Amino acid sequence: MASVTLLTVWASPFSMRAKLALLLKGIEHEDLPQDLGNKSKLLLESNPVHKKIPVLIHKGKPVPESVIIVQYIDEVWPETSPLLPQDAFLRAKHRFWTDFIDKKIFDSLARFMRSSDGGAAVNEEFIQNCMLLEGALAELGSEEDGPFFGGASMSFLDVMLAPYSVLIPGVEQVMGLKPASPEQCPRLHKLFGAVAEHPSAKAALPQIEKLKEFIQARFARK
Ligand SMILES: N[C@@H](CCC(=O)N[C@@H](CS)C(=O)NCC(=O)O)C(=O)O
């Protein structure tokens, strides 16, 4: 096994985060794609509590949970592309909004995907959550500094959010999600545009067309 190995599923937004952090920092690694319908002994032993991907295995030691993995990567390889801010208060902000993405953005999107009534109410909730994130972009940095939470370069919070740049259009085009408009969330749209152009993100995130096929097969309403 390579010194750095990632147990992954390509369509998982959580896997995408870990992959993106490794690529941003130029860390040589091996991907071990997992079948969640038939979990490998390695996955069960590496993440016995949650039995979920992603898991980063570094020198034989397993680190589960995408948020913890990306923080671990940033601590172990701090020199290239530092992700978390130096300032403790800003670090707290990045962690707060990461928690918001996982608890509110992901949750409202997942509920939309599972909804049996067309999902209009939960779609509105999703848009309101995106507008709160838009407020965080304005609060944490000026547009002149660059498109990302980290200004000109991707930061921790950008890595946490980047998978949504493919997930949202995928769910929009397959399941009819109405995303927040460029008028409602101008900075968020610019951020997603910049993610789409970023070389590491291009390599870490799947093509929207491929993701659409996955969403269609797994989640589309019959
Ligand atoms: N909080 C976890 C979530 C990971 C997660 O939900 N992984 C899903 C795939 S997207 C999984 O492994 N599911 C397998 C299962 O629930 O049995 C993280 O951030 O890494």
Automatic annotation (TrEMBL):
Example GO biological process: glutathione metabolic process
Keywords: Transferase
Domain GST N-terminal: residue ranges: 2-81
Keyword NADP belongs to the record: no
EC number(s) per entry: 2.5.1.18
PROSITE patterns, per the entry: GST_CTER, GST_NTER
Principal EC category: transferase
Record carries keyword Transferase: yes
Pfam family membership, one: GST_N
Domain GST C-terminal: 87-219
InterPro entries recorded: Glutathione-S-Trfase_C-like (IPR010987), Glutathione-S-Trfase_C_sf (IPR036282), Glutathione_S-Trfase (IPR040079), Glutathione_S-Trfase_N (IPR004045), GST_C_Tau (IPR045074), Omega/Tau-like (IPR045073), Thioredoxin-like_sf (IPR036249)
Molecular functions (GO terms): glutathione transferase activity
Any single GO CC term annotated in Swiss-Prot or TrEMBL for this entry: cytoplasm
Catalytic activity line of the entry: RX + glutathione = an S-substituted glutathione + a halide anion + H(+)
Similarity-based family: Belongs to the GST superfamily. Tau family.
Name of the protein described by the UniProt record: glutathione transferase
Organism: Selaginella moellendorffii
